[in-house]
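Subgroup meeting minutes
Present: P.N., E.W., G.H.
Scribe: E.W.

1. P.N. recapped why we're keeping a running log of single-chain structure predictions: easier to compare across weeks, and new members can see raw inputs and outputs side by side.
2. G.H. added today's entry (279 aa).
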Amino acid sequence: MKQVISASRRTDIPAYCLKWFMEQIREGFADVHNPFYRGQVRRVSLLPDDVEWIVFWSRNYRVFLKHYAFFTPYNLFFHFTILPKSALEKSGLSIPEALYQMERLAALYGPERIIWRYDPLVYWEDKSGRHTNYNPEEFESLCREVAHLGVQRCYFSFAHPYGKLEARFRNRFTNGRLLQKSIEEQKTITARLNAIAAAYNITLFSCCNDALLAVPGVAKGRCIDGDLLNSLASSGPVSRAKTPTRQDCGCSKSVDIGDYVAQPCPTGCLYCYANPVWR
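Output recorded in log:
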């Protein structure tokens, strides 16, 4: 059985490391460091005979769209994060440019191979008051545009208060503090999100928060879903075995080839669980 390559939860490979990835494909493998024990290195085959799917994660597919033909030997699936610009990102695409890229991906591969990530929702406070990157009107506008492109899956989550995130907010903002909504508050917000998404025939998927499945219409997120991938490909099946990366994760087995340390992400999102660079 061939494997699924995740490229990558650990950094934005399509935006910043695609040439590296292409070179590794030419060599036929990538040496991947264990993110917790750097001395442990695993050699991962990238040969088409061993890889059925590459699952990309990105906020910017501009470079990929220049080189998409290189990846013809593989089945491709795309996570595309599109959020309104906020004070939490150092850089990022404009919404029109992101939607243009999504349109191109949909034309090349089909909208069923794209997940739109409106993720994560963040609440914080600083000396000027309380803030969020979530705006219902902006979300509805994005739903309208994404639905027009045929994309019908939206993954979302609320930012988890990991210690490294809380430290970033303290360092970035005067009197800065990451806020955590209660589960009941999250359910109320989720119900509003779902009502908006459903009006455009978009299914809302909760990533790593099963408590929100109590909201009618919300589905469990499986960012790498062996069943879905198998339904999309006419070639060999991939593993459906669940290998969660954290609590409530529903993901199927895959191999992530990114590197938190060697490939920090210049987009610099303060809420990123990987290694954003803000200079």
